[in-house]
Amino acid sequence: MHPRLQAFQTRLQRSPLTRIDDPIVSERGIRLWLKRDDLLHPVVSGNKWRKLKYILNDALHRGADTVLSMGGAYSNHLHALAFVGRALGLNTVGYIRGERPLELNPTLLDLIAWGMELRFVSRQDYRQLRGFKTCDSLPGLKPGQYWLAEGGATALALQGVAESAAEIDVAFDTLAVACGTGTTLAGLIGAAPASTQLIGVAALKGGGFLTDDIAALLNRSGGADRAAWRVLTDYHCGGFAKTTPQLLDFIADFQRRHAIELEPVYTGKLLYALYDLIRNGYFPAGHRIVAVHTGGLQGKRSQT
């Protein structure tokens, strides 16, 4: 690992497992744990660090001085990239979906404070940017510039995500995670024991395409596809970053009872889905579930 990245990693905490005891869970004979990747770092938490780790290691070893990537106005990915980029001495550029707002939100202000250059692009141009998948594929890249696909969706990201699965020190039958690009689920699929099943909960409406995207990412990475897996597409609550009163009530109640902060874009929807599945008998009695808290709590600011 590059020395600069190794030095930053020493600032991270180990991600613990927290047992979740609730009447609805125990009554169905289910055991549920939460993998607390949200506790890895106060800013660069969850799957954002997991995905960036080996990507930035590759960029540094290639001699890159600038990393360019893309995301929305509340992007957890860009938020993490800007912070780590500054810590590693890398310049960062973020292509932001949509027109520049008259008043910048807290996420965008953070990006600027950490030295990221913001480039606002139309939604049409943003869709075109999604077509560039490799580090040298963006047209017009200059020497020393490294392109990173949306959400860090590259084969290198899977290596860091796999480390999260390797840290789970309890036996489990199902491993569950929220899905945006599907990269985190792909990394877990490649690392989980063959006897387990994996569930992804799509955070966006019309998430059926994620199944093909995940399969393609596994194929490009040469990763194993041993375990059974599926993506659930009915718990998006109206679409990406959309909520319902039921979801918000669930999150508030969960936080009150367990003192674990959730956000409504990803992990809130994940646990909302799992509780619904448990309530409706989807899992047999005695089933053991580990859900991954992928962090991204800064994104809650989009709801205020």
Automatic annotation (TrEMBL):
Gene3D superfamilies: 3.40.50.1100. Residues 24-295 form the Tryptophan synthase beta chain-like PALP domain. The active site is at residue 75. The keyword Nucleotide-binding does not apply. Keywords: Pyridoxal phosphate. The keyword Repeat does not apply. Belongs to the ACC deaminase/D-cysteine desulfhydrase family. This is 1-aminocyclopropane-1-carboxylate deaminase. It comes from Methylomonas koyamae.
